[in-house]
Amino acid sequence: MADPETVAVAVFAALADASRRAVLAELAARGPATATDLAARLPISRQAVAKHLAHLSGAGLVRAEPAERRRVRYHLEPAPMATAQSFLAALARDWDHTLDALRTYLDHEQENRP
Fold it and tell me: Which residue, 69, 72, 86, 87, is the most exposed by fewest CB within 10 angstroms?
């Protein structure tokens, strides 16, 4: 099992590109599809879609499954996204604690002003 931070880094890197986000959105909206299907629905070439799918696959966000006539159909994989969300939630909790401490300090300073 991969380290959650490593998974989160791969997910964030994959999501940094607008075309990869569009590919993921298309798969989420319409379900599994081939690179050719995705290229027909998106304003990018089939070669670009294939490149983006390889990156998304490397991040664990999509899974390739053999389909009819030597075609490959891509499916969403939710686990890496859930790991990245958990990573962000943990960071948010850390920041919430730090910001609460700062708020308390500033409130105390303001109350003790002459």
Answer: 69
